[in-house]
């Protein structure tokens, strides 16, 4: 950054859990390592950020007190008051941190959404502290609010007005897609620079040794079903595997590690367990795969239990599927209860929350990623797919308006619009797994070929760094 010895500080502002805000963590790392600035992160705690952020000597994390969850005992007639009271409390807390608790920065970089009260508080703080003010548009806050209140709500209209007016007051803007850039220019009067999400260097394919170490660490939880038994828990019954060097996927003999020929196919999906991601699509697709394979192979439910499970473990053209679902959110328990009631023969589900350092290893060890993200605005892209591509993992993703800016069909992934279509893709991609699934191998090759051409550091250097340098210079003139 020009004048980098002169400009000393940046503040990264997130009205959310910093551990679940990867893009803002990457901003902080780039500001510290590429722009050589001291960086203050103002955010909520809850989940640990990546160790590279926590341990960087130039990054200082300031955790605000989290707003308590809405009490269920609160009468419905009083709940609309929370829409006013909660932003007021957050507004004054933000002001206290941005104007008192941290040193005066040369630039504030704020995540949007949420827009209220974040944009208002940061704009006021930037005026008080004579700092530049940059918005990183991940989505539109008013469209997220409309999911719960409806597009015709007066609160949504007010939210939209505030978001637009204060968005126009920023010294500069970044956004995540060209479709969003066009929308901001045409209908908001805001000029934004596109900064595509890219994975940092710690998102990469895992080595065989790393896979084995990860699987050893989570093997016990993978063999514990939600219901009485499933195709993974029964592997213990039929083989008696209790060797700590043998996992569901790998075997270690002395120093030699190998992948099992009859291992399950590992599919990973990350979700916030919220209503805007319809997890039932994945459940239905898994159930369809289970039933279709059973019908194709004329499997007889009346066979002796141990023989039946052993045959399923053997593969017979179509493998067992293990879905690992990561993330935290309000609907997690509801779907775990649904999973427990499913009568699945060759499909198993596990949910877990991984440490930031283990999540890339899981993606780098998987065979396929599934993304259920549907944008409230139709203009943002799922960060989880970016992470999957960084780890060399092909993706099946829900189709919507601008997803093709990220997922190229038949090159690095596939798109689906229904559970039946997703089940078809599972049948096609995993037939003959692990040795003969050519379609899956081609997609993986496509991901690996494209991931080498660009990364977060180069994208940030080319697009974000010049904008931030410019707004700091203009603000100081």
Query: What is the mean predicted local confidence, pLDDT?
Result: 86
Helix content: 40-55%
Largest sheet: 7 strands, parallel
Radius of gyration: 24 Å
Count of alpha/pi helices:
17
State the distance separating the first and last CA atoms.
Answer: 16 Å
What are the low-pLDDT stretches, counting only 5+ consecutive residues below 50?
Answer: 1-5
The rough form would be described as: globular
For the secondary structure, the number of strands is 15
Strand content range: 15-25%
Structural class: alpha/beta
Question: Strand order within the widest sheet?
Answer: 3-2-1-4-5-6-7
Kindly describe this structure:
The protein contains 17 helices and 15 strands. By secondary structure, the protein is of the alpha/beta class. It has a 7-stranded parallel β-sheet, sandwiched between helices. Strands 12-11-10-13-14-15 form a 6-stranded parallel β-sheet, sandwiched between helices. Helix 2 links the parallel strand 2 and strand 3. The two termini are 16 Å apart. Mean pLDDT is 86; it is low at 1-5. GO terms for molecular function: mannosyltransferase activity. This is Glycosyltransferase subfamily 4-like N-terminal domain-containing protein. It is a single-pass membrane protein.
Features:
single chain, 477 residues, alpha/beta, 7-stranded parallel β-sheet, 6-stranded parallel β-sheet, 17 helices, 15 strands, 43% helix, 16% strand, globular
SSE layout and pairing:
Elements: E1 9-17, H1 22-33, E2 38-44, H2 51-54, E3 59-64, H3 79-101, E4 107-112, H4 118-128, E5 132-137, H5 141-149, H6 154-167, E6 172-175, H7 178-188, E7 193-194, H8 208-222, H9 233-239, E8 250-253, E9 256-259, E10 265-270, H10 280-296, H11 305-313, E11 321-326, H12 332-341, E12 347-352, H13 359-365, E13 368-371, H14 383-390, E14 395-398, E15 413-416, H15 419-430, H16 438-451, H17 456-476
Parallel strand pairs: 1-2, 1-4, 2-3, 4-5, 5-6, 6-7, 10-11, 10-13, 11-12, 13-14, 14-15
Antiparallel strand pairs: 8-9
Helix pairs in contact: 1-17, 3-4, 5-6, 8-13, 9-11, 10-15
Membrane topology: Single-pass membrane protein
Protein name: Glycosyltransferase subfamily 4-like N-terminal domain-containing protein
Subcellular location: Endoplasmic reticulum membrane
């Amino acid at each position: 950054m020009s004048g980098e010895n002169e400009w000393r500080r940046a503040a990264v502002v997130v009205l959310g859990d910093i551990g679940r805000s990867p893009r803002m963590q990457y901003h902080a790392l780039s500001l510290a390592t590429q722009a050589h600035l001291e960086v203050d992160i103002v955010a909520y705690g809850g989940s640990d950020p990546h160790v590279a952020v926590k341990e960087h000597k130039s990054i200082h994390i300031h955790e605000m007190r989290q707003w308590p969850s809405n009490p269920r005992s609160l009468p419905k007639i009083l709940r609309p008051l929370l829409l006013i009271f909660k932003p007021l409390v957050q507004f004054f807390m933000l002001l206290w941190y941005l104007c008192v608790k941290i040193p005066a920065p040369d630039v504030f970089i704020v995540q949007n959404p949420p827009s209220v009260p974040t944009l208002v508080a940061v704009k006021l703080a930037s005026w008080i502290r004579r700092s530049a003010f940059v918005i990183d548009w991940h989505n539109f806050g008013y469209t997220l609010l409309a999911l719960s209140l409806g597009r015709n709500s007066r609160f949504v209209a007010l939210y939209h007005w505030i978001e637009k007016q204060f968005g126009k007051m920023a010294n500069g803007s970044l956004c995540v897609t060209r479709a969003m850039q066009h929308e901001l220019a045409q209908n908001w009067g805001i000029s934004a620079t596109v900064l595509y999400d890219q994975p940092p260097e710690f998102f990469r394919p895992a080595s065989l040794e790393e896979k084995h170490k990860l699987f050893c660490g989570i093997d016990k939880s993978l063999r514990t079903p939600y219901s009485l038994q499933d195709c993974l828990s029964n592997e213990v019954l039929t083989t008696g595997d209790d060797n700590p060097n043998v996992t569901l996927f790998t075997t270690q003999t002395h120093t030699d590690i190998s992948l099992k020929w009859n291992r399950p196919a590992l599919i990973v999906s990350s979700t916030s367990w919220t209503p805007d991601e319809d997890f039932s699509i994945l459940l239905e697709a898994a159930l369809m795969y289970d039933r279709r394979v059973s019908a194709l192979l004329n499997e007889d439910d009346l066979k002796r239990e141990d023989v039946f499970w052993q045959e399923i473990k053997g593969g017979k053209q179509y493998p067992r599927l293990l879905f690992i679902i990561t993330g935290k959110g309000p609907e997690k328990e509801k779907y775990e209860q649904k999973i427990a009631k499913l009568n699945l023969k060759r499909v198993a589900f596990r949910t877990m929350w991984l440490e930031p350092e283990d999540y890339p290893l899981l993606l780098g060890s998987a065979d396929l990623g599934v993304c259920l993200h549907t944008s409230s605005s139709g203009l943002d892209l799922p960060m989880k797919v970016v992470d999957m591509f960084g780890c060399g993992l092909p993706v099946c993703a829900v189709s919507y308006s601008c997803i093709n800016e990220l997922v190229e069909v038949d090159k690095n992934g596939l798109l689906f619009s229904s559970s039946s279509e997703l089940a078809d893709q599972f049948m096609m991609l995993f037939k003959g797994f692990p040795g003969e699934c050519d379609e899956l191998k081609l997609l993986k090759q496509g991901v690996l070929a494209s991931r080498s051409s660009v990364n977060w550091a180069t994208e940030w250097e080319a697009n974000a760094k010049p904008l931030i340098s410019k707004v700091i210079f203009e603000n100081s003139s």
